[in-house]
Amino acid sequence: MGLNDEQREAIAKLQAKVDAELKGILSEEQLQAMRRGPEQSPEGREHHRGDHSDGAERPARPDRPERADRPERADRPER
After folding, report:
1. 26-62, pLDDT tens digit by residue?
2. Which of 3, 12, 38, 44 has the fewest CB atoms in 10 Å of its CB?
3. 3-state class (DSSP) for residue 52
4. How far is Cα 51 from Cα 73, in angstroms, rounded to an integer?
């Protein structure tokens, strides 16, 4: 990122404040999980909230029409 010394110092101070606040909010187990990053599924893929197991259909979104039913947008070129 090309940070200068002043920026690195400011980020380090901010990170220390954030770590201290999180310690008061999260359990030790939650802190460790957060530090590990996104959990890995057995297949080695990252698991994100909302992922569905293989073969599962995504839930319907009644607030959004299916792609084929959406009106074309004049401001976007066709792909």
Report:
1. 999 999 998 888 776 555 555 555 555 555 566 666 6
2. 44
3. coil
4. 29
